[in-house]
Amino acid sequence: METSLFHYTSIETLYNLFKNIKEGCIVLRAGYFMNMNDPNDCRYFFKEVSEQLRKETSYLQEDVEKRLAESMSKVGIPYFISLSAQGDFLPMWSLYGKGGHGVSIGFSEVALRKAVENYQKIGDVHQRALAKSSFCKLYKCNYWNQKDIHTKFIEHYNVRMDHSGDLKGLNNNDICSVSYIIKHPDYEFEKESRIIFLVNPNNRIEYAYYLNLYIPIDAITKIICGPCTDKDLVKAIIPDELKPFVVQSNISYTDSPQQITPGFGFISQRLK
After folding, report:
1. Most distant CA atoms of the chain, gap in Å
2. Other CB atoms closer than 10 Å to residue 227's CB: what's the count?
3. Alpha-carbon gap, residue 6 to 233, rounded angstroms
4. Cα–Cα distance, 231 to 243 (Å, whole number)
């Protein structure tokens, strides 16, 4: 059976995805990691690694953490697209699916990997210029405790800090990417995968708030309407060929109606 990975989003974003189809693809945006909704994302890893490295030097933990981040940024500036193996899961709706008022878009994992391979080949001039100086790969997140971080990251990659403050062992894309997919075991229920982009910091291209990944429409395997989302509303937004893939969440959950953003009135009128 083909594996799917799901991206939770709002009705407004769903509308914009299909309003702006390009070259037969929808465009998912990878956000700069410091602009993530969760300000603690990656902080767990940085804190644990810096604490363990600090024991080897006379530096304060804050200094070690800063040097760790600086060392990693020299390899690449990180951007993420988050996905989950959980397509219809109440905690995910609550955290990332607008409290059940959003949708969960399922993509073939095989097709996603193909889209990642084609990242440098599709898009406008600016997109391709960024892509040429970027690394892009799909990873599954790791949910590691303190011991795991030490044995599976610090020891495995021989990450260390000498007394001059230089960090060793963080010198390639894969090693740095792994650091952005380490999460606390408390979040294992998310079953998250991430498409990681690392942009070469030495390029002369202006800073980007996001990067685009073009995914063919036929990569979509399912569109799950949240427990509080109107299935007919979703069908009114998407192309006809995708309507058979729209299903309602199996979760029994109700909430107060969420007001549709101004500008979506024409859709609600079509449903009357």
Report:
1. 70
2. 21
3. 20
4. 10
Q: Taking the model in full, what pTM does it have?
A: 0.87
Enter the tokens of residue 45: 């890893």
Tokens of 128: 């391709």
Pairing of strands 167-168, 182-183: unpaired
> Which has more confidence, 42 or 79?
79
Q: What is the pLDDT of residues 110-127, one digit of tens each?
A: 999 999 998 877 766 666
pLDDT tens digits, residue range 146-189? 999 999 999 999 998 877 777 888 888 999 999 899 999 999 99
CA distance 63 to 20: 44
158/178 Cα distance (integer angstroms):
14
Domain boundaries defined on the chain: 4-270
Residues 6+ apart with CB under 8 A from 266: none
